[in-house]
């Protein structure tokens, strides 16, 4: 939770619209103000009664695909053919390039396939 989240939550609970909150933050914080879009997104989520906005699922961070099963599957493809490329692994497992790269580097601690 960032330092601004409680401010956004309280102002949203008080019924203040996102545009006004953004203007207040800009006046108080100047160039350190989050973008208008960020303020609108956060206030919308707080209206939906979310406690924290930073812990939401993010499509650019698919943690749920870093499962033991997927790690084992990637390892198996590499073990079966030590000359496997990322494209070979993607074709076999249907995970994104970024996910496979994260598994290889972060989980398996190996170099490129």
UniProtKB/TrEMBL annotation:
<dbReference type="GO" id="GO:0044547">
    <property type="term" value="F:DNA topoisomerase binding"/>
</dbReference>
<protein>
    <recommendedName>
        <fullName>Mos1 transposase HTH domain-containing protein</fullName>
    </recommendedName>
</protein>
<feature type="domain" description="Mos1 transposase HTH">
    <location>
        <begin position="17"/>
        <end position="49"/>
    </location>
</feature>
<dbReference type="GO" id="GO:0005634">
    <property type="term" value="C:nucleus"/>
</dbReference>
<dbReference type="GO" id="GO:0000793">
    <property type="term" value="C:condensed chromosome"/>
</dbReference>
<dbReference type="GO" id="GO:0000014">
    <property type="term" value="F:single-stranded DNA endodeoxyribonuclease activity"/>
</dbReference>
<dbReference type="GO" id="GO:0031297">
    <property type="term" value="P:replication fork processing"/>
</dbReference>
<dbReference type="GO" id="GO:0015074">
    <property type="term" value="P:DNA integration"/>
</dbReference>
<dbReference type="InterPro" id="IPR052709">
    <property type="entry name" value="Transposase-MT_Hybrid"/>
</dbReference>
<dbReference type="GO" id="GO:0035861">
    <property type="term" value="C:site of double-strand break"/>
</dbReference>
<dbReference type="Pfam" id="PF17906">
    <property type="entry name" value="HTH_48"/>
</dbReference>
<dbReference type="InterPro" id="IPR009057">
    <property type="entry name" value="Homeodomain-like_sf"/>
</dbReference>
<dbReference type="GO" id="GO:0042800">
    <property type="term" value="F:histone H3K4 methyltransferase activity"/>
</dbReference>
<dbReference type="GO" id="GO:0046975">
    <property type="term" value="F:histone H3K36 methyltransferase activity"/>
</dbReference>
<dbReference type="GO" id="GO:0006303">
    <property type="term" value="P:double-strand break repair via nonhomologous end joining"/>
</dbReference>
<dbReference type="GO" id="GO:0044774">
    <property type="term" value="P:mitotic DNA integrity checkpoint signaling"/>
</dbReference>
<dbReference type="InterPro" id="IPR041426">
    <property type="entry name" value="Mos1_HTH"/>
</dbReference>
<dbReference type="GO" id="GO:0003690">
    <property type="term" value="F:double-stranded DNA binding"/>
</dbReference>
<dbReference type="GO" id="GO:0003697">
    <property type="term" value="F:single-stranded DNA binding"/>
</dbReference>
<dbReference type="GO" id="GO:0000729">
    <property type="term" value="P:DNA double-strand break processing"/>
</dbReference>
